[in-house]
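User: Predict the complex.
Assistant: Input components as received:
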Amino acid sequence: MISAGKLEKSRSSAAARLGRHQARMGYLFVLPTMLLFLIFMVIPVGMALYLSFTNYDVLSKNDWIGLSNYGRLLQDSLYWQTFVNVGFYAIVFVPLNLLISLLLAVLLNRAARGVKVLRTFYYLPTLTSAVAAATVWLWLLHPEYGMVNGILSAFGIVGPAWTSQTETAMIAIIMMTLWQSVGSNMIIYLAGLQGIPDYLYESARLDGASRFDCLRYITWPQLRPTTFLVSTMAIIGALQLFDQAFVLTQGGPANATKTPVYLIYQQGFNQLQMGYASAQAFVLAMAILVFSLISMRLNKSEEPIL
Amino acid sequence: MGTAIGQGSGSSKHKSDRISPRARRAWNGAAFYVVGILIAVVMFLPFYWSVMTSFKPDEDMFSMPIQWIPTSFTLDHYRKAFTTVPFGLYFWNSFFLATTGVALNLFFGSLSGYAFAKLKFKGNSGMFRLLLAAMMVPGIVTMIPSVYVLRHFPLTGGNDLFGDGGMGLMNSFWGIILPGASGTFAVFFMRQFFLALPSDMMEMARIEGCGEFRIFWRIYLPLTKPALATLGIFTFQAGWNSFLWPMIVLNDPDKATIQMGLQAFSFNFQTDYGPMMAGALIAILPILVLFLALQRYFIQGIAFSGIKG
């Protein structure tokens, strides 16, 4: 007969063995992910910082040049112009994006016949790749034979040469990205709307609140976390705009639609000034990081975005 | 649901109280459909316009006013798109890259997600937090050094053990597949689903002597099929639509993806709008088909990313 104490002891050692085995398997299961993370995230981030202090150009040079990349960057008016460009883009695009997708969600948040079909139609543009969408919009915005100017001319308006005028090129990109992105934000807002309890509306109605009052004082405040998420993501996305500008306008005319990522791409991969491009990328990353931290702080009561 | 706002009896102080509630409800309903359908038309017009263009002969394309309904029909633009550039090959390349990405992400994402959610080991939450924090690093920062890493990958593409001498994984499909083979989003997404599953099945299986991998593979993984479908679709869409990274890694024209091919086409044949539209539609088609077949998984994926905020 085994004594109770002995049984207890062997049981706990079995548990420890099981725990060790479990831990080993745990490490094994996360190994591929962590290995790829190390190779393609940790090492590159470290290297990006290092490269930004060198004149690395793939072919021959790889010397430490201290802060001169950053010094050059401060003088680089084109670099700062790209920030102004995406800043303009963000200031116009983000509020419109929020407003339109919220209105679409409020419109479609009802149990009426055909609502699902309408949702599908609003969502369709988000399925297109930026390249395909820009290709289609190149033709839509054709100054003479494009659909947009065709419709405008039906109202007696002479449309501009959208993508080849400095004043309208960024507007063209904004219109296209709005078309492409309001559908998915609408879905996020719909999910948010469904989380607002009904009794809030019911009691407001009893107190005589109008429909607009409900929207202003119930829906909008209740959706604050959703709005925060959508706008943060939209601004971070705006700072990294590339595909649309690359295909629709090639950064032009006169660099009016050149974005930081576009410039970094050209500097690094066309002109092979990878050291300098790394410095540019690092400053952009800092801008994005600072922005994310500020918006997280502003929204401290909520959970972090991810 | 918050759907009944202002549709019914509510307040009576408005001037509209002369109209009966029933008439007002009917008017509201009609207004909803008019507005809703109008917006749907606006959203759909670019698709309609590009489909029409892709089937119109050139002389009809360049005519004013716009011909909304084509008078003649031609497949020439599709023929031209496929013969001037190897769109078929690009299509296949993109398909291969996207499906490989899906398979690897589903496997590694759920394997790691399961471990982070269900297995106890030191550093579990620390590693997971590190992954999440790295999601804030914008892609452009790692892009240049990642090229360096790929180029100097040991024992690949003519490289020696120290990663010198050849091109490494540059200009190869692995250069696109490997960096994204176990995306943080996949790990995070799957972890959330495994967290929601009870742990007692695991305990039971262990007592029965079932190995850890079999517990994951045979018991838990099959329970996450809807999540896998959502993640799979998301990953496919991202892979199919990705542009900048493949453009950097792949130089060989025979390895180009459909997005690269389309961009090059619209850059080189700037006035050939017919074939351009045909190409764009071909590039959109697979995602569209996937969406129409599996709509609810798309919506769930988006809603998930929203609710997590």
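Chain A has a mean pLDDT of 87.
Let me know if you want any component modeled separately.
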